[in-house]
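PROTOCOL LOG
Step 1. Enter all chains and additional molecules of the complex.
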Amino acid sequence: MNTTPVTMAPASEVGRPEFGRDDVDALADDLVRILGPRGVSALPRALTRASKDGSGMSPILTAQQPLGRVDLVCYPKSISQVPAVVRAAVRRGVPVTTRGKGTGNYGQVVPRFGGLVMDTTSLAAIVEVGDGSITAEAGARMITLEQAAWDTGQQLWMYPSTAQSTLGGFLAGGSAGTGTIVHGRNHMGFVAALDVVYAHEDAEIVCLTGDDAQPLVHTYGVAGVIARATVRLEPLQPWRCVYTSFPDHHAAFGAAMEVRDVSPAPRLCSADGAEISSHLPSDEGIPAGRASLRAIVDAAVVDEVEAIVQRHGGRVEIVRDGLQNTMRLSTISYNHPTWWLQKAQPDRWFHMEVQGDALVERLDEVEAVYEGGMLHLEVGHGRMFGMLNGIYRDPDTVYAGVPELEKLGVGVHSPHQSYVDLDADRIKAIAARTDPQGLLNPGRWLS
Ligand SMILES: Cc1cc2nc3c(=O)[nH]c(=O)nc-3n(C[C@H](O)[C@H](O)[C@H](O)COP(=O)(O)OP(=O)(O)OC[C@H]3O[C@@H](n4cnc5c(N)ncnc54)[C@H](O)[C@@H]3O)c2cc1C
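Step 2. Run joint prediction.
Step 3. Record the structure below.
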């Protein structure tokens, strides 16, 4: 069930490129010529900002800080500048880490060996909203894409709970979110086309479509810079945001298993026990002292969902509709409940990403693996998925839980490492061709 071995390795030295201060200074001059003086910065505040991501959610990664610090950050404003920036960096032998909004959880946007960070957030144009697809620049925000899709009676196949994050960052570093129940994880089939830039001395934009684009997805920017992408839309459904509550999380999670099977399928279904729920943003749909199940479901199945909830001893608190409400519900799904928990009680909690129906079927045993264990549950594509939160003591305790969880039939993915975490050998083989000098976001390989 596990997709990759859960590694305990600290930040790696594998692939450290050789470059020096002179190379960085020469690159800075090149970039001023390409982007203008406002398009490049070496100011300490800009460098600090460009060297951080959401990995503060992991106490293990936090203890390894700084995971890296960049020497230079640049801000291309047009797609045509992207290959020019990459060409300059390759000719100077300086590594390039491409950055979206910097919300990734695992340190993969932290420039491990310094060099250049290319901040893509100014590349935010929506190029075209077609029938069944949307084309946008890499720095466009997922929330903006969803809005543009709704304006034409369509919706994104999927978007993450960090809806402010970028299209490029989600495709390169994300894996799941609203829409995953129907379409699965890791963007399979989501991407129709990618415009990418490889780390070659004569780099230009390369257009990849269909099956040729998929291998570049979820590669953390190590095999190519995504400059622009076309992703799939589908007809907009009449969504309703159903907030329900239960006396305890056994009841809520049992109901979630049944909500998974309604047809048409929900777009999202998340559930928490009373303690995690109490740390979510205040909402009349999430009453104090009760477990919470929140779902985005088609209007046609609201009554069916209510019947399921009642059968499990719960009640419907409120039903809402509209884009803002679906977004609001999405932003308290996936890793966000853990984030709220950690915000309320800093330095107390860690989490593991877990999956499998055993999460619900063997809930007490699963939560007992870690001291203070509390599961945040998501209905996944065909099987349950979640974040198992526990009280943090030390790395050994965290990793000692992994075989215990696996014995219970639970798949585990560790959010405490900054390596390429899926299909590393396949991606390494692609990168050998697209980035022969190993300059794209180096430091992501274990060996
Ligand atoms: C509280 C919280 C909740 C989250 N919830 C979710 C969730 O529901 N689902 C989910 O999948 N993730 C989630 N994440 C992880 C992350 O926020 C998302 O995956 C997000 O979509 C990443 O986008 P970003 O713009 O912030 O990317 P960044 O963090 O900037 O980058 C992520 C990775 O992609 C690479 N990259 C960025 N842009 C490009 C580009 N143009 N070309 C090539 N490589 C690029 C970076 O180098 C890095 O390796 C969550 C994180 C937090 C902190």
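Step 4. Note key features.
Residues 34 and 84 are 7 Å apart (CA to CA).
The pocket of flavin-adenine dinucleotide is lined by residues 53-54, 57, 97-105, 108-109, 120, 138, 160-162, 165-166, 168-170, 172-177, 220-221, 225-226, 334-336, 339, 441 (CB under 6 Å).
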